Predict the structure.
Amino acid sequence: HLLAGATGRVTLASWPLEQRKEFLSSHPLPQFTAHSITDAGQFLAAIEETGRTGIAFEREEYLVGVHAVAVPITGPNGAFVALLWTIGFASHFDDTAMERAGQLLQAEAKGISQALGDR
């Protein structure tokens, strides 16, 4: 789903702010779990954080018992073309493991992005 946790944040972070706001005003945020962010303002803040750091983290927002980390892959001129995403069971994929996964995903995404023409 486009608005699902980490992958949604990475995708929408590639859009201009006004496009994000317009999209969210016409597409209500779904409640996948009790942890899902359903407030557009909170989701926009999470997207902004993803845009700033280049990593999206989510904790049981899309699937109960599952945490996720996602990063963008870019092509020529920094255009968003894909993303890398990993998930883990919440019982073992804690904040430390998620941070490490984010670093590893960013390093891999950088190599892929460069191979696609992003400098």
Observations:
- The first helix runs from residue 5 to 13.
- Residues 84 and 101 are 11 Å apart (CA to CA).
- The chain has four helices and three strands.
- The chain has a mean pLDDT of 96.
